[in-house]
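FIELD: query
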Amino acid sequence: MGVNTDDPIWLAIRMEATEAMQKEPMLASFLHGIILNHKTLEDALSFLLASKLGSITLPPVTLRDLIDEAFTSDPAIGESFRDDIQAVYDRDPACREYSTPLLYLKGFQALQAYRVAHYYWTRGRQQLALFLQSQISEVFGVDIHPAARLGKGILIDHATSVVIGETAVVDDNVSMLHEVTLGGTGKETGDRHPKVRRGVLITAGAKILGNVVIGEGAKVGGGAVVLDDVPAHTTVVGIPARPYGYTRTEQPALEMDHRLYGFGDGI
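FIELD: result
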């Protein structure tokens, strides 16, 4: 098999799968089917997503062809999901191998399925994109509108009940936890969802509502309800959210430090 040897993340994943098969023979078929039977990371990911998201009305074989088309036509998707794997590996202390996001983490899997749905949305195939959104929501418990614009190096940790609305924008190197909502405030139309800038950390349960900007390197505390813009490198907490202090790093998303430092605590 002509395995792609120019992809260090894919080579690491294959090595980990080979070692895992030796340690846990009961998973040999699983690891071979998802990883070792494929030449590239794209092949493995398309197989996995199709097997999870396929249905009676859109069988896995057909769905996989659609996913492969997206990966082949837009190489930027592959660049993005490699950066997403690296983000999980670097930021999630529970992730000790590059294969873990691919095999087991639904936040990563849902994000890559969104990227396929977004590909078809931007090419005028909105019904297909919405179908994929529905499947992603049912299977993973993550609801990302296919029109939303998400960058790369994104970590969605645990991911259950994450909601990202139609006109939301999430820049590169953002981290968020479960039950985060990037939503609207009601029945307004047009550009109505949050814009989250580079390096932002959004803690579990935070709700960011409306066409507000979360400035670069900001931190949103757990359970906060954000209704106004958040200045860069500022921590906000509470309902409604109010400034609490400055962040201690340029990109809190990379450090995953959820502790709160008030204005009087020093930097």
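FIELD: remark
The CA atoms of residues 5 and 145 lie 35 Å apart.
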